[in-house]
Amino acid sequence: MRSIGLSVLFAFVLCTMAFRVHAEDASEREIERYRAMISDPMSNPGFLAVDRGEQLWAEKRGTKNVSLEGCDLGRGAGKLEGAFAQLPRYFKDADRVMDLEQRLLWCMQNIQGLDTKDVVARRFSGPGRVSDMEDLVAFIANKSSGMAIEPQLGHPKEQEMAAVGEELFHRRGGVMDFSCSTCHGAEGKRIRLQGLPYLAGPGKDAQLTMASWPTYRVSQSALRTFQHRIWDCYRQQRWPAPDYGSDGITALTSYLNKIASGGELIVPSIKR
Fold it and tell me: 235-242 — which CB contacts under 8 Å span 24+ positions?
């Protein structure tokens, strides 16, 4: 009698597991179908940010009344094609490894003579508030769309930055003792119905993730940069918010681009 009861229980557990797997597969298919529906570049509002960014790039501002067209993003002053695909990288004039946002702020301050306090205050757009940085990043990143992510690791400081980023990725802390790898350190993890990319090593997940930022977030009705993605990750982990344009974010980006090498940039993308 007892063996019959155990058999029934075992069969029930198997049925429950099969139903759960089927439900997750169906949910994943629906999410992919939704992503395909909103991925039409002709209807991506993120390209409005690209247009605004192009105007800002050519606008004369600051005490020197010059545009950003004299800014060198790594491929020569004013040369944008392929620049985003190779950032972060080391810049000799600043003696630092910089991501795109750090470099833009440096150029605003040093080439334009612009006080960036207001620019940083509007780093993320919101209702009734545009963000120069989001628009500029969308415009510049779009100039690398269709190109492969090409991490720059030839300079010792670039290697050091990527190594620090990997350490940060696995560093646990905060009131919940979380790290980036808590969610992204193993394959097959998910939050509710959302599958989580594996980012603890090279592979397709890392390439698809890093090749899709900046992106237009439908749920926020705004274009978002990878700076915002990291800021939101830290918020969700209940860590203190990282400073905008900080070396910590650049380090994480360097590490993630290293494991995403070769991924084809399609930006700005569009996400839920």
Answer: 237/174, 237/176, 237/178, 237/179, 237/182, 238/174, 238/175, 238/176, 238/178, 239/173, 239/174, 239/178
> Which residues does 217 contact at the CB level (< 8 Å), separation at least 6?
223, 224, 271, 272
In angstroms, rounded to a whole number, what is the distance separating the alpha carbons of residues 134 and 127? 14
Torsion angles phi and psi, residue 86, rounded to 5: -110, 10
Give residue 91's Cα distance to chain centre. 21
Q: Give catalytic residue positions.
A: 233
Q: What is the chain's pLDDT, residue by residue, as a tens digit (272 residues)? A: 455 554 555 454 444 545 455 555 666 676 667 666 666 667 789 999 999 999 999 999 999 999 999 999 999 999 999 999 999 999 999 999 999 999 999 999 999 999 999 999 999 999 889 999 999 999 999 999 999 999 999 999 999 999 999 999 999 998 999 999 999 999 988 887 778 999 999 999 999 999 999 999 988 999 999 999 999 999 988 999 899 999 999 999 999 999 999 999 999 998 87
pTM for this model (two decimals): 0.86
Written as one letter, the residue type at 70 is G
